[in-house]
Amino acid sequence: MPNDPSTLADLRQEIDRIDDAIHDQLMRRGELQAAIGRAKTGSEVYLRPGREAMVLRRLIARHEGAFPKAVLVRIWREVFAAGLSLQNQFSVATLSGQKNAPLANLARDHFGTLTQIHALPSAQRVLQMVSEGEATVGVLPMPESEEADPWWRRMARSGARIPRVIARLPFAPPISTAGQAEGLAVGLSQQEDTGDDRAYIVVETDHTTSRSALKRAVEAGGFSVLDWKYCRGDSDALYLVEVAGCVAPDDPRLRRLAGDDSSIAAAWSVGGYARPLDADALT
């Protein structure tokens, strides 16, 4: 009988045993994350967005039953964030102000409810805080074309302390306060090949180069162009080009793009992201 008290008691006892087993494994996971922090020689958090993406894709692929997949993703995002906080001081920088409130919610949804959020007045300050190690990650708005001073142009240079794009948010359709907001996370970690990725390169050229000619040149250089944004200076133009796959900072294709016979003056890898899950993946 479904309402048999003895049957209900047995079911609740089984749930209690499952809860204890989950709790034991979470405690063990926390011990391992703390051990990783102790084993590191530096003070920075060991952040791997690509691995997190692969873990979530694997869990969603093996998931069965009535428990909602969206909630599964939410739980694991909190687990990831808690593990990062056990390694060292973990915090996120984003923009302040009413207009940017969805970015703060997006950051909290992705990087954990208890994660410290620094609300800063400018994208330049967000990038600076990440570069100097005062924040682990920055969350900035999605790029748009013809912005007067786009934040991504500050990544168009080489150096170990230059923040790069590391993730696109949200990784799964939101179920809480972020609404329809989207953004890019930036940090100092390198993009990992997850098998389904997008990368960004910044290309510098002059005003005489048309967008169609630039697209042909980039594709001839071995990249599959998906989208681009641009901004113009007094004598040059910068394009943020989104391409398929991963592009390392020392990718030889970047050097070939800026060859002697090219209209491209310089090209830089500025990171990338593992493609997020879509709504169909969570049904």
Keywords, separated by commas or semicolons:
single chain, 283 residues, alpha+beta, Chorismate Mutase Domain, subunit A, Alpha-Beta Plaits, 2 domains, four-stranded antiparallel β-sheet, 7 helices, 37% helix, 23% strand, chorismate mutase, CM_II_prokaryot
Structural notes for this entry:
The protein is α+β, with helices and mostly antiparallel strands and 283 residues long. It folds into two domains: 5-194, Up-down Bundle (Chorismate Mutase Domain, subunit A), CATH 1.20.59.10; 197-274, Alpha-Beta Plaits, CATH 3.30.70.260. The protein is 37% helix and 23% strand. It has seven helices and nine strands. The strands form two sheets. A five-stranded mixed beta sheet has the order 2-1-3-5-4, sandwiched between helices. It has a four-stranded antiparallel beta sheet with strand order 7-8-6-9. A hairpin with a 3-residue loop joins strand 7 and strand 8. The chain is elongated. The two termini are 32 Å apart. The mean pLDDT is 90.
Secondary-structure blueprint of this entry?
Blueprint: H1 5-39, H2 49-62, H3 69-87, E1 91-95, H4 101-111, E2 116-120, H5 123-131, E3 137-141, E4 164-169, E5 183-187, E6 197-206, H6 211-220, E7 225-232, E8 236-244, H7 252-257, E9 264-274
Parallel strand pairs: 1-2, 1-3
Antiparallel strand pairs: 3-5, 4-5, 6-8, 6-9, 7-8
Helix pairs in contact: 1-3, 2-3
